[in-house]
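Example 3.2
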Amino acid sequence: MARRTQELGRFTDVALLVLISLAEGQKHGYRMISDIEEFSGTSLEPGTLYGALMRLEERGWIEPVETSERRKPYRITEAGRGALGEQLATLRRIEQAGARRTGIAWGLS
């Protein structure tokens, strides 16, 4: 995902990226890192991801999945889906306000 304004940095929230990744289905950490980079262009370090996983699990928004494998998969909970829906609605309102105020529409340069 190419960006013209690299100097602005990334506007991301790791918890939001994790919830979006898990909304598609359960994943272990390495798969989440790959998925998040694929859909957002954001490269996460393992420590950053696992800190977010711990906070999300404490909130009850994700939970580990029982497995006999070495890798520990997680899934989003119903509470997590609700939190994700609220955050996406907020982002949609922010995007719409920004588009109105700047006259910039998606797909236009």
